[in-house]
Amino acid sequence: MSTSLPNEIEAHRQPDHEINPQFLERWSPRSFTNQEVSEEVLLSLFEAARWAPSGSNNQPWRFIIARTPEQLAKFHTFINPFNLVWCEKAPVLTLVISHTKSPRGTDNPSHAFDAGTAWGYLALEANNQGLITHAMGGFEREQAREALQIPADYELHAVIAIGYRGPADALPEKLQEREVPSGRLPINETIFAGEFGQNLSK
């Protein structure tokens, strides 16, 4: 890499090919401080998500944001205990959902794919803004749907914790050792040439 990476990142992540460092520097810590995220900074994350590509430009993603004590407490009721242990300090939680129907009322087969892309844009911009994000699938979906009054034609995907990073030793001991950037599979294990299972020729 032509750009030096923080030691913490370099110790755990080495790309096989040259890429922008932002893709390596973004990871998912669990230790948050309770420092408030200003509205200007917070909305910049959703502005980035707004510009994600989507099938037929349908933009099916929606984000339900919790940042007041009352809103956060409501989110806490449907987050699994394992996740609540660390995410309850996060000053912002958001639920990512997507509309399963197109504007014409037909099924939208790419709604989840598109929502995932929007979340990726949000996560990268959060890192650019000095924030951390951690998406979690461990929550009770039907309980969340009822608590947040989400219509039946929206699918619930993930709760995202957003905020500023705290020290690893603020976490329960069993989570402290996991507070490091995760690695990835070699690229040749995730791409194929022409058909499934065929390695790229060198």
TrEMBL record:
The keyword Oxidoreductase applies. Residues 25-75, 88-164 form the Nitroreductase domain. One of its GO terms (molecular function) is 3-hydroxypropionate dehydrogenase (NADP+) activity. The keyword Hydrolase does not apply. Keywords: Oxidoreductase. It holds the Pfam family Nitroreductase. Transmembrane segments: none annotated. Its EC number is 1.1.1.298. InterPro entries: Nitroreductase (IPR029479), Nitroreductase-like (IPR000415). Belongs to the nitroreductase family. This is Malonic semialdehyde reductase RutE. It comes from Paenibacillus allorhizoplanae. The gene is rutE_1.
